[in-house]
Structure formats: structure tokens, C-alpha cells
Amino acid sequence: MSYETILYEKREGVATITLNRPQALNAFTPQMNQELLDALKDGNRDKTVRCFLLTGAGDRAFCAGQDLKERSPDKKGSLGESLRVRYNPIILAIRRTEKIVLCAVNGVAAGAGCNLTLACDLRIASDNARFIEAFVRVGLGSDCGGSYFMPRLIGLSKATELFLLGEPMTAHDALRYGLVTKVVPGTELEVEARTMAEGLARGPRSTGLIKRTLNRSMYADLEAHLEYEAYIQEIAGRSSDYDEGVRAFGEKRPPVFRGE
Ligand code: T3D
Q1: Protein residues with CB under 6 Å of any ligand 1 atom
Q2: Which candidate, 35, 16, 167, places its Cα nearest to that of 106?
């Protein structure tokens, strides 16, 4: 299979997927959604793969979420549908595979990009990583399971703060809250993540069973919640505040919301 928006490599039991649109902070286009899903399906089928390593190209960003330059008010389409078709299958593929998914967060992770990191089993971050639940900044609610994973991972109080204020959480704060396993200098992230991924790939069969058990313990109704987020995002996506949020982002100015 050939890919244009991701890099995909399988070696030593590890399937490495690199989101590869660094000029747009690795933001999602429909093609990138599809290629990421295809790679996850391929690695899941491949018996030589025991662990996924998910990261972003460059040292600025892991992923800035949906590509907002595709989202002018006249061609934004249905956000609920976009989530059901493009994003939710990725989140479910990560949770459903018994292979461990390690995320190497190599820079800013915003919006859907932030929530993609949360769906993974483990996170290791470079010291310049930031986690931003950026949705509120453009007049949206949460999606990609962020409102599901974040309170389970760090507690409701801090999760509420992150979603309502949309402020960045630094890598070191993420470590303090247990969101990431380790923070390393950016120059060391690739090697550290690779070492951790190869170690996970050498683990016993039971690692996949442990993942299944933890899924059952914490994530039993994930699918229904993803559907609920898509329903809510459809409402938010139809609001004039969202149109203003996207316009303001493109014009590099703060949005003026009217609560409508
Ligand atoms: O289908 C659907 O829409 C449903 C799904 C929705 C899920 C979502 O993800 S909605 C949320 C989308 N993401 C965001 O709201 C984040 C937007 N970006 C930012 O807030 C900031 O760019 C960052 C905090 C990520 C990084 O800030 P900073 O100061 O390090 O970089 P910057 O200068 O803002 O951005 C650098 C460039 O990347 C800039 O382009 P330019 O001016 O150099 O040509 C900027 O426009 C571009 N960029 C950043 N984020 C996006 C983007 N381009 C397109 N889409 C983006 N999301």
C-alpha cells in the first residue's frame, strides 16, 4: 500500500505510523484519516506486529486536529457525519486492537490531535509537547472520545478546566497528572519511544489480554459515547459561533462569540 499523508514502517515487531503533513502541523484531511485507518487495520492483521508507535513528523506538532483551512462556513458539511465516517473508526480501531498503541507526542497536540493521543494505551512526550482541548476556541464541543478519555485519565476537575478554558497543558503538567509516562528532550524522543515500543513488542500474549480487561473496566460504552459526541458536535457545528471561530482562526484574530 502506498501512502501520501502518513509514513508507515514495520520493523522488529513495531508498526510505526507518522502523521506526515508538517507544513500544516500534521492536521487531518480526509485522506490522512483514511490512511491512518488503513495502516491501523494493516498492522492489526499482521501477526509480526505486536505494537504500534504513533507519532508526528517534525518537531513542532504531533497533530493540530482537523485541518481548519478546509472548513469555510459554506463548505463545512456535517460535523457529525465527519466524525462518524472519518474519526470515530480510528478511535475504535486503536481501542479494539489487542496490540499496544504507544503515542510519541513530539509537539503540540490540539483538538482531535489531542484526543487521538488519549485513545492510545501509553504516551511518551517531548519536553515541548502541549495538549490542547482546542474545541472551545472555535466554538465546538469535544469529539474523538476526548470527553470520555480525559476525565478517566486525569479526573473530572482538571478535564473540565482543559475543555472549558482551552488552555494548553504542558508536557511536565501532563506527567504530573499521569497523562504521559515519560517526558524526554525532543532530540531523544525517537530513540526513547522506539526502545519502549520494542520492549512492548517483546511482551507476552497477555499484554493484549490486559488491554482487553482494561477496556472492559473503563471503556465499555465507548462506542455509544462517540456517537453522542458526534450528535453534540453536529449541533455545535451548525452554530454561527463555530463559523465565527473558524473565520477568526483563518484571520489570526480572537473570535467574537455571541452564544448562538
Ligand atoms: O470534520 C470536523 O471538522 C470534525 C472534527 C473536528 C475535530 C477538531 O480537531 S476541531 C479543532 C481543530 N483544531 C484547532 O482548533 C487547533 C487550531 N490550531 C491552533 O490552535 C494552533 O495553531 C496550535 C495551538 C495548534 C499551534 O499554535 P502555534 O502558535 O504553535 O502555531 P500557529 O502559528 O498557530 O500555526 C502554524 C501554522 O499551522 C499556521 O499556518 P501559517 O500561518 O504558517 O500558514 C496555522 O494556520 C497552521 N495550522 C495550525 N493548526 C491548523 C493549521 N492549519 C489548518 N488546520 C489546523 N488545525
Answers
A1: 24-25, 27, 64-69, 71, 79, 82-83, 108, 110-112, 132, 134-135, 137-138, 140, 143, 249
A2: 16
- Least Cα distance to 107 among 90, 139, 84, 132 occurs for 132
**What's the pTM?**
0.98
Residues in the chain with pLDDT < 70?
Answer: none
Residue 178 CA to chain centroid, in angstroms? 17
Q: Which atom of ligand 1 is nearest to the CA of 130?
A: 24
Residue 81 pLDDT: 97
Q: Whose CA is nearest to atom 22 of ligand 1?
A: 64
Cβ neighbors of 226 (< 8 A, separation 6 or more) are: 83, 88, 91, 92, 144, 145, 148
pLDDT at 71: 84
pLDDT in tens, 71-81: 877 778 999 99
Q: Ligand 1, closest atom to CA 138?
A: 15
Residues in the chain, overall count: 260
How is residue 219 written as a grid cell?
471503556
